[in-house]
Amino acid sequence: MKVLANDGISKSGILALEKGGFEVITTKVAQEQVANFINENNVDVILVRSATKVRKDIIDACPGIKIIGRGGVGMDNIDVDYAKSKGIHVINTPASSSESVAELVFGHLFSGVRFLHDSNRNMPLEGDSNFDGLKKAYANGVELRGKTLGIVGIGRIGQATAKMALGLGMKVIAADSFIPEVDVKVEFFDGQSITTKIVSQSLESLFKEADFITLHVPAQDGYIIGEKELEIMKDGVGIVNCARGGVIDEVALVKALDSGKVAFAGLDVFESEPKPEMAILMHSKISLTPHIGAATGEAQDRIGTELASQIITLLS
């Protein structure tokens, strides 16, 4: 049987699939050619990340597909219900990238509170001629310890983020309409651990209380954070989005950054991805990454081997 990993797969995933008797194709096929390629090469399984879309047209055009796999959590680029109605298995790897995304959240938080993103832009330009000026400009940092982190969406990635925040000595609050409460276990290197309960509260109360806000939600029909929500937040709040583009009104965000209402933002995803707006890309108060939340070697290894395991189990 043949597996098309159109958005790539780790070496460990390839080896696991080949050991299970599958042929793995890692050719990158253009979106408009995916259906033809699948049919011409008798592909049984297509694996994607966030780039390739598997919609009704491909599902209808490729009756030989047995499994559609998503390397990651969200499956908004796959017509999941329609695929299942056609008897196709749809799989993903919800737990594999949680730690990597959570660490990136804190990369953005640390960058924001200590101006690292802007300092790294300006030091090469002015570090030798305006060292004291830059030192003064970036001298008003704040600590994360003792501050309140509001987590919107306390699923696997939200919980991984909560663990890191608790380890830093932050207060953690959460809002999640599907998870009323959750026990979060923080494990240490020597086998010791502590467990604390996080009880979900209203979005409005979270926005009012949090010093920093991080989003961990699937794609939405509308904004979770727009002009109205920004108005009720604390002055000087920091906002991070490593979840999905389109959950923050970017026009309202830029306005709030310009006014000082929002101290900084950290964005890994964008409304107009893969072509983010220039007003976002050029803003001195935004820490930027190009949708790399799950892009660590460890996460990709876990994703590859987990997908391989599920495929082998389903088709063996």
Automatic annotation (TrEMBL):
Keywords: NAD, Oxidoreductase. It holds the Pfam family 2-Hacid_dh. Gene3D superfamilies: NAD(P)-binding Rossmann-like Domain (3.40.50.720). The keyword NAD applies. Residues 107-293 form the D-isomer specific 2-hydroxyacid dehydrogenase NAD-binding domain. Residues 9-315 form the D-isomer specific 2-hydroxyacid dehydrogenase catalytic domain. Belongs to the D-isomer specific 2-hydroxyacid dehydrogenase family. PANTHER family: D-ISOMER SPECIFIC 2-HYDROXYACID DEHYDROGENASE FAMILY PROTEIN (AFU_ORTHOLOGUE AFUA_6G10090) (PTHR42789). This is D-2-hydroxyacid dehydrogenase. It comes from Flavobacterium soyae.
